[in-house]
Specification:
heterodimer; A: alpha+beta; six-stranded antiparallel beta barrel; 37% helix; B: 6 helices; globular
């Protein structure tokens, strides 16, 4: 066979790539529309994901086993350190849960706060356990793949927790797996309040890397470095009071740096605050997580 | 190329695409991990030709899209399809039996996929993206000869020494 490199073949290659691009665009648009209306991907994606799901879970089991054996053989100390850190994280989660209980008991007797604690405890206890079986295959975004999907009653928008910490949100649900974006993803946003002052702070958004930011924090919230921020309960699928992160830095933003859309005016002399928030959970070492609000299978 | 080689290349690409999230989790050194799914597309394109490379790239792109969020689905499919097509068009110009060529093809394929994806979905931090892409391309180049060996041995078994002749670019 001889290669033919004349122009008509190149033109056909370009046409094929354009047709593929248009097809990909329609598939992407259908995916977004289907997700917005039904909470699940479009039918072609569901079919492909259903076929590939068992393979992904098998690949996770094989690679996890190989990883554990390699660590045990070549870095036994690293394995021991990892086990110690896991035990410390479990202890820390238990201490945080009991501290939250004590804080709610010492807080002013606001009915909504007392009911928040009861609902939060119940929601965390009822979280569907899930295993992280993979990361973003393109490496571009802070995503995790979970071994729970539609057949485990998981739906789009459910919160993801690691112990008492909110770490993300379910973004895509396949038949036996699902994909969750982590709290540091640019598409993640959650309303937060300060645990110390019990005042609404603003909306915490992921920066796409390792932190969250509250770009326009209310000064009345009196948020300071070291304050714990918890969810403010504006989302029906994420309960009130789940820990989001700790304020790492408080920055003042002059009003002239705010856009008109953000409410800045020429007469505004008060400074606005911007908070840099660090997640408490280690998002690079997630193994077992919980899905809030998923009904357990019968 | 014969039907067995085609089936092997497609099966290998699907198996590697299914394993890619676990590879990204367990085989990462810092930010770098081997983009084995893209390397499998490059292998399919170089061994089988442009049309097959485009189709394998599209299939792997759809599989990869189901492993990501809803944002950027189109860009993932287009980037993988483009890599398959370009690898197929380059199959008449490269000596595929050379290990260094296989390393370079795997590294370059991973880099091209990232660059095309950036056009659809710009990264949050450019410096981090550059470091990660370079690390990924190096890791992908390292594993490329392994995937080439699998497909090329099947091709050699099926067609004899004729597998070294470049495939036709009939579209």
């Amino acid at each position: 066979m001889t290669a033919r490199r004349d122009i008509p073949h190149t033109q056909r290659a370009v046409v094929a790539l354009i047709v593929t691009a248009v097809g990909a665009w329609y598939l992407a648009r259908a995916s977004l529309l289907a997700a917005a209306h039904t909470g699940r991907p479009a039918a072609p994606e569901r079919l492909v994901a259903a076929l590939m799901g068992p393979g992904e879970r098998l690949a996770y089991r094989l690679l996890a086993r190989a990883h554990a054996r390699a660590l045990a053989s070549f870095r036994p100390r690293a394995l021991a350190v990892e086990a110690e850190q896991l035990a410390m994280r479990v202890d820390e989660a238990l201490r945080a849960a009991s501290a939250l209980n004590e804080t709610t008991q010492e807080a002013p007797p606001l009915p909504e706060f007392v009911s928040d604690a009861a609902a939060l405890t119940s929601a965390l206890a009822d979280a569907l356990p899930a295993t992280v079986i993979g990361a973003d295959p393109t490496g571009r975004r802070p995503l995790v793949q979970l071994d729970r999907g539609a057949r485990h009653q998981v739906v789009r928008g459910l919160g993801l927790v690691c112990g008492p910490d909110l770490i993300g949100r379910i973004e895509r649900v396949n038949r036996s797996t699902s994909v969750a974006i982590l709290a540091t993803d640019r598409e993640f946003a959650v309303a937060v309040r300060c645990l110390r002052s019990n005042h609404y702070v603003g909306v915490a958004e992921g920066d796409g890397s390792r932190l969250l930011t509250v770009r326009r924090a209310l000064a009345a919230a009196d948020a300071r470095e070291g304050d714990v921020l918890v969810t403010a309960g504006e989302y029906p699928r994420i309960p009130i009071g789940v820990r989001v992160g700790v304020v790492e830095r408080v920055q003042s933003v002059p009003p002239e740096l705010l856009s008109v859309d953000e409410g800045a005016s020429a007469d505004d002399t008060q400074l606005s605050l911007s908070l840099v928030v660090s997640p408490v959970a280690d998002l690079r070492r997630l193994d077992e997580v919980g899905i809030l609000g998923a009904r357990p299978p019968d | 190329m014969g039907i067995v080689t085609l089936a092997t290349a497609v099966s290998l690409a699907l198996a590697v695409a299914a394993s890619q999230p676990a590879l990204a989790r367990y085989c990462a050194v810092g930010w770098a991990f081997p983009d084995a799914a893209t390397v499998a597309i490059v292998v399919a394109g170089l061994v089988l030709g442009a049309p097959e490379g485009l189709v394998v790239g599209f299939i792997v792109g759809v599989v990869t899209a189901t492993q990501c969020g809803h944002v950027g689905v189109g860009g993932i499919i287009v980037s993988r399809s483009a890599v398959g097509l370009l690898a197929g068009l380059a199959s008449t110009r490269v000596y595929r039996a050379n290990v260094l060529v296989q390393f370079g093809a795997g590294a370059l394929g991973s880099l091209v996929a990232d660059m095309v994806l950036v056009l659809f979905s710009p990264p949050a931090y450019t410096g981090e993206w550059i470091a990660q892409s370079l690390g990924k391309s190096l890791a992908s180049g390292i594993i490329a000869p392994l995937l080439f060996v699998i497909v090329v041995r099947v091709a050699r078994w099926e067609t004899g020494e004729g597998y070294l002749r470049p495939p036709s670019v009939r579209m």
